[in-house]
Amino acid sequence: MIEVEIDGRTATVPEGTTIILAAAEAGIALTANVGCMGQGVCGACRALVRREGSREVETALACETKVEQGMRVSFLDRYTLPQQQAYGTADLADGWTIYERMLAAFPNATHCRHCSGCDRACPKGIEVQKGVELAAQGELGAAAAVFELCVMCNLCSAACPESIAPNHLGLFARRAVAASGQRPTDLIRRLHEIEAGSMAVDTTPR
Amino acid sequence: MSMNAIPWADALAALAAPPAAPPATDVQALLRRWHPDHQAGASVPLRVGASAGQACPPPLAALLHANTLIDDTDVAGCATVDTGLLVIGGGGAGCVAALTAAAAGVKVVLATKLGLGDSNTVMAEGGIQAAIGAEDSLQAHFDDTIKAGQRAGDPALVRALVTEGPAAIRWLIEQGMSFDREEQGGGAIRLRRKRAGGTSVPRILSTRDVTGLEMMRVLREAVLLHPNITVWNRSPVVELLSDGAGRCRGAVIYSLYLHRFVLVRAGAVVLATGGAGRLHLNDFPTSNHLGATADGLVLAYRLGARLREGDSFQYHPTGVGWPASLRGQLISEAARSLGAQMRNGHGERFIEELSARDVVAAAILREIGEGRGVERDGCLGVLLDTPGLERAKPGVLAGSLVSLLHLAHKSGTDPAREPMLVCPTLHYQNGGIVVQPDGSTDVPGLFCAGEVSGGIHGRNRLMGNALLELVVFGRRAGLAAASCDAARLGRANLDHVQDWRRALAAAGLPLEVRAPMLFPEVANFSMAADRALGRAPVLAAG
User: Fold this and answer.
1) ipTM over cut 0.90
2) How far apart are the CA of B181 and the nearest CA of chain A, in angstroms?
3) Where is the 4Fe-4S ferredoxin-type domain positioned along the sequence (chain A) (predicted)?
4) How far apart are CA B385 and CA B157, in angstroms?
């Protein structure tokens, strides 16, 4: 059995238990900072973790991190951005203006001081700082690829001293690339056929 | 049920021989004998409400038969907020409905029990259906959906679903969602397609095997940035409000921030509260997120909305069987779609892998029940032959099945070298609240979208039709609800609660059982304890 401390409560759980299940075992009400319970995709269970014998505080997703003897854990509540990065879906459609709009919505994107705080904070091992740099240079397609498996836990945004909001910048790049550039010919043709009335559906039982 | 099984090592040895094609199967007999919906005691008739007499699993029936969490005294003097539209639920359907109504100029409050996007949508892996292939048609999509649903689906709803599929994909791309593509030369692209179990042509569009993640993070961002939408996290709904004449006029929210109830009066309400997986029907593990506790079903039913196919649930065939710590997690149907085979303990294929989900799940339960399952560390299942898939298509695991790889990594195995033990896992509520094609229900002013609604999937859902449903019917419900008159909000009260209690008493049902559940037992939530936090005395400084 392993003993851990989570938000000030002690849990004694079998080896291999995840932090989130240990928290349930400790009697903590799981009403926030919890969602998918183990798949590691909703990003809700962000936590600060200190391992025994270490002074370093690390970030983790509690549903994907197993407890270790002497581990201390604090859940981090939903992180709200200091300033809302205001843009609308309509801003994403025009590839010619997209870089300007990105710089307008994320004025700090070019202020990266290369401290790597975002990279250390990311529980998914994404090269966040590289993605920020690519976006700042206007390489939105390359930036979008960097953030492909981002779960929007906001830990990089919390870690960034320049308030760049890296995950939101990465998501802007992803959305812009799709909305301004993806024009699949098969989809366009089918939309035309439906519009022209040549794709009727017969609902009578057959 | 036999507890015999083939030990893991023996099953691995049996895997070496190339398998014969699976035997022909009498599908109806298989389902009747082995599908969990059809087992003795799987359902009981409902005793009160608009669908009294209908079959329903006992744990869900207990909630539908329950007394309210609150009455008038709980909400006397509590804060009241007015809005054009109240959307309840922060998954895909709720976000799409909110975005659609907001685009029509309506002020929206979106209240969600957990946090925005912490839902089943974000966990969806496989993809979304839309009939866009040259060899495909809306008719083929319609026929596949009706057939897979054992002809129980509502043709008008299914027609709406398939007809607006391509437009839904365009809308998603406009919101900024990416789909996997294939270059066609000359710079043209087409969308990459996979085939779902139980369908006639490849129709699944996806973003690798993280389609729900890609969809949800785009929808969540769009909602957060929309000036007409206010998001309330940690705000479960505990009761709907009516005008005393049967019209829905809003809801009572419990704020986990304030530890208090808040009354929301609205021109209309869209319920997008998802399903019921956390009821763990028939003691199955579930793939569902923590909040899937049937809250929306309970509240809509109490206000007079009918239920349909309330006894029909989907057990996803390939839940994790081993290790026990990862039970409940899923291996996407994308694995079988890409060619992975399933083998029993004798190394035999036992069912066509791309049959409909209910059929594959029942076949796996048959193999286990008849002693041909595989046992590893006390866990039972059958084998998903991922090494065989990787040999047939080198690089496919890393290229197309990143979620599967991630899952295998967590269990400390290499799926390219070792098969995965899989067993069925409670995944989806096929039925739900009766809706019209515009998402409206029997209760005026109350709309439903997504898993909480019924009629689209009949008695079995196809892979990819859940994500499509939440977009198509999220848009339809959002648009129809937006046209409700919010100018005269008028009376909004809990009068229906008294009628409900009288009905419970008349049916001889206990008044001590309360619902909605809000959180499953594992969450350690007590409303009494939480409310006490809001009444704690403020200590004077010094």
Assistant:
1) yes
2) 8
3) 141-169
4) 37
Q: Which two tokens stand for residue B376?
A: 């590893």
Contact check, Cβ <8 Å, A179/B139: no
User: Would you tell me which residues 147-176 of chain A have a C-beta closer than 8 angstroms to some C-beta of chain B?
Assistant: 148-152, 168, 171, 174-176
**B329 to A39: CB separation less than 8 angstroms, yes or no:** yes
Task: State the nearest Cα–Cα gap between A37 and chain B, in angstroms.
Answer: 6
Task: Looking at the complex, report in whole angstroms how far the Cα of residue B348 sits from the nearest Cα belonging to chain A.
Answer: 30
Q: What is the DSSP string of B476-493?
A: HHHHHHHTS--S-----B
Percent of residues, chain B, with pLDDT higher than 90: 92
Helix, strand, coil percent values for chain A (each to nearest 5) = 35, 15, 50
- Position B1 pLDDT exceeds 60: no
A190 burial (CB, 10 Å; 0-12 / 13-18 / 19+) is buried
Q: Tell me the two tokens of residue B423.
A: 């067993």
Cβ contact, residue pair A175, B221, below 8 Å: yes
Domain residues for B119? 72-123+217-312+430-482
Statement: residue B541 has pLDDT above 60: no
* B382 Ramachandran zone, left/alpha/beta (phi>0; psi -120 to 50): beta
Same domain, B119 and B245: yes
pLDDT digits 0-9 by tens, B238-296: 999 999 888 999 999 999 999 999 999 999 999 999 999 999 999 999 999 999 999 99
Identify the CATH number of the domain in which residue B368 sits. 3.90.700.10
Q: For residue A195, tell me if it sits in a domain.
A: no
B21 contacts: CB under 8 Å, gap ≥ 6: B349
Give the residues across from B343 on adjacent strands: B383
pTM: 0.96
Contact check, Cβ <8 Å, A194/B189: no
Domain that holds residue A145: 89-181
Cβ-contact B242, B495 below 8 angstroms = yes
Residue type, A178: A
Token pair for residue B373?
């399952």
Q: Give dist(CA B438, CA B475) in Å, integer.
A: 9
> Does residue B360 form part of some domain?
yes
Domain count, chain B: 2
Per-residue pLDDT tens digits for B480-532: 999 986 666 778 999 999 999 999 999 999 999 999 999 999 999 999 999 99
Residue of A nearest to B288 (CA): A36
Residue A139, helix vs strand vs coil: coil
